[in-house]
Here is the input.
Amino acid sequence: MSEIREIHVPDIGDFKDLPVIEVLVKPGDKVAFDDPLLTLESDKASMDVPSPGAGTVVAVTIKEGDRVSKGSSILTMQMAIDEAPVAQLPVRRPAVADPVVDIPPQPTIAKAPAPAVSISGPKPHASPSVRSYARKLGVDVSRAIATGKGGRLLREDIERFVKDALLRLDSSAPRADQIGGLNLLSWPDIDFAKFGTVEKVAMSRIKKISGANLARNWVMIPHVTNNEEVDITELEAFRVQLNQEGGKDSIKYTMLAFLIKAAVATLKAFPSFNSSLGNEDGEPILILKQYFHIGFAADTPNGLVVPVIRDADQKGIGQIATECAELARKARDGKLGPADMSGGTFTVSSLGGIGGTGFTPIINAPEVAILGVTRAQIRPVWDGNAFAPRLILPMALSWDHRVVDGAAAARFLQHLAALLADFRRITL
Ligand code: CAO
Here is the structure.
């Protein structure tokens, strides 16, 4: 015997009007007790609403973007009469949530023990179909690295986990600590608490994902970094003048937007810097891209992200500046979607607003080069007769030595510097 029951949002603590960022089930889906039904997001963390019982989804009454509070109707479910929903099953925070967020109090549960709400070893965030796929392959979901939106485990994450496990089993394949036959020492496992008080803080999802990518890129790409200094006195004066003129659109012209525009012009002149390494029939090839999607590094409270300005070659500096500001805001609010961060062909990393005299940017693979800039400073420059105060911008270009070489990189930087020193050249 079964009947259709309406499922509601359980007690979510002090939160109200939370946006639904993902609906994880659709009519016809079979769900088990505790399977996540939808994900809500507060300004601090995202959380799953788990199913209070087993059954089949009949109709979903909310959609992404809707706002819900305790008691809002979510869906109707065909449930066995003896599968009466467990009242007030608490929401569950994904594995990647900010560790300092307060967890809503766990209400008393009449029928079954509530799923654990814990910081140290929480269950990962995954839809019922991904969980069942993982079960089929014998994958322990808590060991796979989630790369989906809001810390969600994707089917691809399960596949990557299986692939990696198979690779490790293959004794002929290099282990992670033996890449390239380096036969490195394993990472020291030290109990730091022996030496003094410590605090353990969970890594944000962004840090976990970007850390893994940066480590791979640093180890697998033969990086070289060339440095250059460019006199941007005239460009900065022009930028300041544009901003003082204002105008109805009140665009804030930023140095980053000029750098992106100049980088595009330079990439057009040096196409191999706008490429990726590929493989066809077992032979390495170079994939030259005819489009110019430029990523820029954005620092956020949760870590580094790289939103992408699409078709930057077809956009004016005002539009690039506006889009950068919008994307940087989205990045800080944790609202960037995968489409905002994919397809980049070259990256600009500007630390100019913060400081520094130089750094080595890590290539954002599968791109083959990245430009880093630090703080421009007034310096005395000999003009042939006297020292003149000039604004000098330090630039660093890291490039993949499998694709380009030092001479090409030096020419690339020279070209870029010439454009920045006299921006009229961009029209040539
Ligand atoms: N030299 C000197 N000053 C600079 C400068 C430079 N190269 N670039 C920017 N500035 C100044 C601007 O003039 C502005 O000053 P005012 O506030 O007085 O007008 C201020 O810095 C802020 O500049 P901005 O509004 O143009 O912003 P930005 O380009 O500095 O920053 C962004 C935008 C998204 C790049 C930045 O927020 C950011 O996230 N930077 C960090 C990137 C990063 O982490 N890179 C490292 C990656 S490797 O870990």
